Amino acid sequence: MNTKTMSKLVSLVLIGLLIGCGGKDEKKKASFSYEKKATTTTQQAPPETKVPASKKVNLTDKGVGPITSVELNAEIDQAMVAHGQEIYNKMCTACHRPTKKFIGPAQAGVMERRTPEWVMNMILNPEGMLQNDPLAKELLAEFNGAPMANQNLTQEEARAVLEYFRTLK
Amino acid sequence: MKNTIKITLGFIAIALTFSSCNNSKSSESKGGLSSSAAEQVYVKPGDHDEFYAFLSGGFSGQLSVYGLPSGRLFKVIPVFSQDPEKAYGYNEETKPMLMTSYGEIPWGDAHHPDISQTNGVLDGRWIFINENNTPRIARIDLSNFETSEIIEIPNSAGNHSSSYVTDNTEYVIAGTRFGIPIPQRDISIKDYKGNFKGALSFIKVDKDSGQMDLSFQILMPGFDYDKAHPGRGKSDGWFFYTTYNTEEANSLLEVNASQNDKDFIAAVNWKKAEEYIKVGKFKTMPTKYAHNIYNDETHSATTTWGTSVKVLDPAECPGLVYFLPTPKSPHGCDVDPTGEYIVGSGKLAASLTVHSFTKMLDAIKNKKFAGEAYGIPILNFEDVLAGTVEQPGLGPLHTEFDGKGNAYTTFFISSEVVKWKLGTWEILDRQPAFYSPGHLMIPGGNSQKPFGKYLVSMNKITKDRYLPTGPEVCQSAQLFDISGDKMKLLLDFPTIGEPHYAAGIPADLVAPKSRKIFKLEENKHPYATTNDADTKVVRDGKNVHVYITTIRSHFNPDNIEGIKVGDKVFFHVTNMEQDYDVPHGMSMIGANTSEVLVMPGQTETFVWEPKQVGVWPFYCTDFCSALHQEMQGYVRVSPENSNIPLSWSLGEE
């Protein structure tokens, strides 16, 4: 236990003592700490930092599934984006947030890390991807074993979601 | 890995070769394993059965789904009884399914499942089943394998001669076993004779939606209408009902309803009935009955009330009903696939009686009547008789057909299934059943096109067939191979409740249409949350509505505060999954109800009335993923006078 944590603990106990009698909003004497995961605030990452799958860049892997090639127009199709965003909000937000890690990874910048085929295959064939695609397997481990759910999107819908992802930087 | 499997398989093959060599010396098998009963019923892991079999659950009120030939149980479909496993009759959405004119009834007695037909052939769209005690007919949708509709039958008691469908499912019928005063009134039971009546109900089935509508009733004399069968093919347009207690006894029926040498099969011309209805020859009787329909888009059932019914009096409608004398309290009433033969199984008779539809029409045309009962013409027994099966066994109950000119009848007292030939009436085979069979079923065996490969005998007594389980032992079914000249017993398997009848159908007529998910975008439940951003908790006085979602593996929200003692909390649980076989369950400590089990895309509601201050957990009841154990949440319950505002959250949001 480092001094920072220790001082936090002490102050929590003090706060607890101060408002403990108030009843309604009990702030319990902090927790214990036992090989807790390093958080981003306490920079305790091991020396040989491994790049997590969600940060890895792989622009050749097309993944496993029905999509073998996707043509992206230079110009983003805004109508398709709107459609894709609507689908994303309905079908994906139970586990994803566009710009931050939730149950699964954030989608912002995904088009700079993955091929469009990989993205669509992950949406359309998550079971196959989790079994056979090395990156998808790594992601499953990184996200606590929470599997990507198959939300039964059509190819057209997945393509629209992909167009929406192009706008997420 | 693959090589390992190959090597292992090789070893198994060698081992089998050796062991089967050893066996062949001691066993009676001559042609190797291919003809063994074991191999005939063995469906190897991962393979599918050839047939679905739907066995009524009798006094369990439910309908069970088995595979044939394996005898494996796939599902118990709740119909007339509550089922806490599936929340049927417990969640707010399905409570109306069990509504009747007597109020909400949590139990029923399920009897005779029958699959919808087109042109006299099974079409695999719906299955109908009757409830005997509180007269009702249910329709189960065979794409969902769930009960879609239940209609109550007024003017009826002991809804037993039910729920069979005509060649094109124009009607499903319901007949009355117990005569009653119609309309109900306060009279002496001793005044039964002449005053009590039995209603035969005709329920129209919409050819597209399957929705039922009580079309009309025929008010018959107060006999007991026991079993029924529609005409097929040439006799389409008629319905046949066995009767007993033509004595009209009101006490000690065991003796007093067995006095007449012959009772009747009532032949009802329902096309004639339609004509009488059309020309207005009916009376409209006020009544009250519940009609409960489940909607696949609102995921909710609603009850509407019927307030009247059209009734026909056969004495005033010539040509509507005729009586065919049939020996000794006939039970089973079965029409062969051609529609020519009507088999009446006189429970106490020494022989099986078979009537001829052609001869019946001749006798009617020539007005050869032997008398009349309450204005209904009685035909001469000899004029309508096609033949008798002599000394077939003791206590005949039910007959099914294989489509190859053979009939199969169960004998309760002599405990056997007997195969006999239509037309020559000769007995071809008999096999013991263990024990005392009631109904039997050949897939499609009551239609124009039976699939005559297997026969299931449903036995009333099990005794020593299985490991004992105290005084109550399971009911039992037995599977016979009927593809050869002789029947061959293949398998015993236990059943749910007491199976009265069953319906079977080739799997490929049903399986491809089986629903996998409900589409979220089609969810029109008034309390659905189809977008995860819309989860919320809303107070309306003492009622609090929690719009909560599930997906592998969390609830949104999973922390709720601001609930107070004395509140009535409605958890409206929407399963956001859109993948096959990913239901989520939810249960709350202290909720006086069952869990809910929510299919992908569905919304279900349960009510919790917290009685104690504290922080109370809820969790997912159906193992959904590797993180299922993490799928849990808390509700904080504060005192009634607390002013803690409602709040809800998931994670840090």
TrEMBL record, chain B:
GO CC, alphabetical: cell envelope
Pfam families from the UniProt entry: nos_propeller
GO MF assignments: copper ion binding
Localization in the cell: Cell envelope
Membrane-crossing segments per the record: none
Primary location recorded for the protein, binned into one broad class: other
Superkingdom of origin organism: Bacteria
Keywords: Copper, Metal-binding
Stretch forming the signal peptide: none
The name this protein goes by in its record: Nitrous-oxide reductase
